[in-house]
């Protein structure tokens, strides 16, 4: 099969057999079949359980063999001892895509490792592909579909996650990693390169995020990743970096994690964007989803707190960004807002304009952002503002939208502070014109990832101004 | 004056004159006097404004001279041109403590720098102390008092912040830095060493957090800090670390930031705990507020996601912690929970015990935590669990409390994941037995800060088991 055909079976199946459907229900459902019904999955569902004639009002089959229609995807959730015979049945019944959710294979012991090898051997006799074992499987918000045993709350967001853990399907406090998801689990057959190809030409996916414990075929991966990275940004969290982490990964997914420096070099060479941790992964993904790429690394910082400006300037040093130097014209524009003794520095502290000159907060914000983005020495902006969503006069969404629309090539990130962070983040992100971060360090780091991407595109593709988006291809 | 007397005037004044009280009200109040009334400040309030006879129903005075009773603290909020004459009046009227909120001094230009020097000179003629200028001043939740022009939401928490920015008075999404606060602003007179002494013997303060842009008198600071650090943990965020940051700090508070390596050596030598960023500052402060110090660096990790265990193991490497190796006895206890093919590794993945063996989640949690903390090779534990606060059967607060109470010397931190993070954090932290972090990296880093403190106490004080707390002194 070609990757597009495979991805249809795994991510947009028209018919799904779930083998080993649990009859257990309760307040803590871990029931794939029940979840699929709850999502409103539009395809045909075939529960397989020899001990039931019907499940959730849907006719149940004793085995895959008895299912009358074609089966795009079989989901195996039996105990590990039954997994091999079930895979055999599926292959013999002509099923071309199988997800083995069950754990206890290469992640467990020698016997499990042997069973995993046997499943792969069986699949290859007939061109069948397997995702897993030891996995949540796949998820596709655009198709109301997931094989996760944990019920998911999915958004139709253009982000595709490829991972080795169900954690990434569940998501974080303020962020969901899908869109679409492929949890490779132990990765016995379908691997990272395959999964990248599934998303390569998918018009619904603009940003790809990967969580890698270990790669088996580095050469194949590099070949595919360097091609896909030219079309779409690919973020990577590589875990099992250290000796202690590597031992943990071996018992999690049976992965050989390999030398971290080799990975680092490989990611650099292929144009992948390596993130440090989960915060970075979320922060950077949000930046790519919502912001344009800056042409360079010069950040204009304007702040209601001088201390925040200092912290942000430190962060610029840490992440290879430069605090922008404003032109004399820009400084003059800013100083019209301020008390007479005030010299507009960079970072620009706009609080005296509000507090001492008594200018309306929104006017100060609009004039400042406008002046900064108009400056040729500025590639991006960081706004540092208190989160006071309960104060109407502090709502800068309108000003932000107006100015950002006039400078579509310059990303604006925001650090909002105060216990009301969450509401302010929602209010400002609703404009689609900024991403709001909880620290200046994280805001600057996210900008640095965007700048890294632009440098990569400049080098490899030789175009400075155009990010290649699938929507445009 | 001695530090205790000074701290009473600045943090628990019985009478306060506010000079330059604004008559401006509205939905965005920046009015110190109005805030004091709102807090229910129990002392005597004297508004000073030559253009009003009454403010908020309280008699107004044309100048400090006319105030009939003694004034513990004068708060100067006039424009910068009036600040020097007002300070002069206060000093002449015998006021011993002055907070100059006004900005535009060493933070602005040469003229401002001169005015700041003149204020200090005036104060020293009469033994008066000044906090500021360019500051929020002080805050004390235990006294319903703050000179912040931004209305604060304060908790009676045993944490004292010493900073150079009002940001730290406003606080963050899930955390307030006070308790009590001293914003030094430009620090023209009262400095970091003085402020440390204010908190040194304060029985209401157990943890001290500092935000430093620049120190003027390093020798005095080290002398005081190394003494105070033996009584209470002191966390430090040093900003203006880089060239770009140093330039920003100079225009913020007129600080000379100095060489970052010198600071690093100084903090190490005095036993201060240096934090990397705002997240670290919050995470570490929460750990010190709520958790015991571990005896060593061996962390038992148990996780509902194998990937989380791997990430946490990487974090242990990064922050100088060790993934604990369990005894054979412990492994046996854990394996009684699991499917027969399962070998209990470290990190311990407890999900098969729930999913495959079908044991109740709470039982697995309790048995695991109990077995791990009972192991002599374990100094602390990290629990990695999905945040499902809506599922009653997943509420482990009771089990956590019960087990943690049996091992009072072993801190337990938690990484909870899912979009419901906030609720789970509240539920688990309400036990007072754990702190809940948004990533395993941040949980491990916080533990490493606690371990660092224990090592310092072991070395300097020569006691391995007893954290010296003010409450016990």
Count of DSSP strands of chain A: 20
Oligomerization:
homodimer
Mean pLDDT of chain A: 93
- Choose one word for the global shape of chain A: elongated
The largest sheet of chain A, given as strand count, sense and whether it forms a barrel, is: 7 strands, mixed
Contiguous low-pLDDT stretches of chain A (5 residues minimum) are 463-473
Helix percent of chain A reads 25-40%
Cα-based radius of gyration of chain A, to the nearest Å? 25 Å
Strand order of the largest sheet of chain A: 9-8-11-10-12-13-14
Content-based structural category of chain A: alpha/beta
Number of helices of chain A: 17
Quick one: which chains have the greatest interface?
A-B, 88 and 88 residues
Query: Strand portion of chain A, in percent?
Result: 15-25%
Measured distance between first and last alpha carbons of chain A: 23 Å
Summarize the helices and strands and which ones pair or pack.
Two copies of one chain form a homodimer.
Chain A (H helix, E strand, L loop, with lengths): L2 H9 L3 E5 L12 H8 L4 E5 L5 E2 L2 E2 L13 E4 L3 H13 L4 E4 L9 H15 L4 E3 L6 E3 L4 E2 L12 E5 L3 H4 L9 E4 L8 H9 L6 E6 L5 H11 L5 E5 L4 H11 L6 H11 L2 E2 L3 H13 L7 E6 L2 H13 L3 E2 L4 H8 L12 E2 L1 H5 L5 H14 L5 E7 L10 H10 L5 E6 L3 H9 L5 E3 L2 H21 L13
Parallel strand pairs in A: 1-2, 1-5, 5-6, 6-7, 10-11, 10-12, 12-13, 13-14, 15-16, 15-17, 15-18, 18-19, 19-20
Antiparallel strand pairs in A: 3-4, 8-9, 8-11
Helix pairs in contact in A: 1-6, 3-4, 6-7, 7-9, 10-17, 11-17, 14-15
């Amino acid at each position: 099969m070609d990757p597009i055909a495979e991805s249809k079976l795994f991510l947009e199946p028209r018919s799904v057999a779930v083998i080993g459907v649990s009859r257990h229900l309760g307040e803590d459902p871990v029931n794939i079949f029940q979840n699929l019904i709850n999502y409103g999955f539009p395809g045909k569902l075939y529960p397989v359980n020899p001990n039931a004639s019907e499940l959730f009002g849907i006719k149940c089959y004793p085995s895959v063999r008895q299912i009358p229609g074609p089966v795009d995807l079989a989901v195996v959730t039996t105990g590990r001892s039954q997994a091999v015979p079930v895979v055999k049945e599926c292959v013999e019944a002509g099923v071309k895509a199988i997800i083995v959710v069950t754990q206890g294979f290469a992640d467990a012991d020698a016997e499990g490792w042997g069973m995993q090898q046997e499943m792969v051997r069986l699949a290859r006799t007939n061109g069948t592909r397997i995702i897993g074992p030891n996995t949540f499987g796949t998820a596709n918000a655009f198709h109301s579909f997931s094989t996760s045993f944990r019920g998911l709350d999915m958004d139709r967001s253009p982000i595709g996650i490829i991972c080795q853990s169900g954690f990434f399907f569940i998501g974080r406090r303020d962020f969901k990693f899908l869109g679409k998801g492929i949890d490779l689990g132990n990765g016995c057959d379908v691997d990272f390169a395959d999964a990248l190809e599934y998303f390569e030409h998918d018009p619904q996916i603009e940003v790809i995020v990967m969580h890698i414990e270990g790669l088996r075929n580095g050469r194949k991966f590099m070949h595919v990743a360097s091609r896909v990275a030219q079309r779409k940004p690919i973020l990577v969290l590589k875990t099992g970096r250290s000796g202690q982490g590597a031992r943990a990964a071996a018992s999690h997914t049976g992965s050989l994690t390999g030398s971290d420096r080799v990975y680092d070099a490989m990611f650099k060479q292929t144009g992948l964007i390596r993130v440090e941790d989960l915060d970075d992964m979320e922060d950077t993904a949000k930046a790519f989803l919502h912001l344009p790429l800056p042409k360079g690394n010069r950040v204009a910082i304007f702040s209601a707190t001088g201390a925040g400006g200092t912290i942000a300037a430190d962060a610029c040093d840490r992440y290879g960004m430069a605090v922008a130097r404003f032109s004399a014209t820009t400084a003059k524009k800013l100083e019209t807002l301020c008390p007479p003794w005030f010299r507009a520095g960079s970072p620009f502290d706009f609080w005296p304009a509000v507090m001492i000159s008594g200018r309306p907060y929104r006017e100060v914000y609009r004039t400042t952002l406008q002046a900064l983005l108009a400056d040729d020495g500025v590639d991006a902006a960081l706004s540092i503002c208190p989160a006071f969503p309960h104060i109407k006069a502090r709502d800068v969404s309108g000003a932000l939208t107006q100015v950002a629309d006039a400078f579509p090539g310059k990303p604006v990130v925001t650090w909002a502070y105060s216990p009301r962070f969450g509401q302010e983040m929602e209010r400002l992100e609703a404009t689609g014109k900024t991403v709001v971060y909880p620290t200046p360090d994280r805001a600057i780091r996210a900008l640095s990832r965007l700048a890294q991407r632009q440098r990569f595109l400049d080098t490899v593709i030789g175009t400075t101004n155009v990010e290649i988006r699938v929507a445009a291809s």
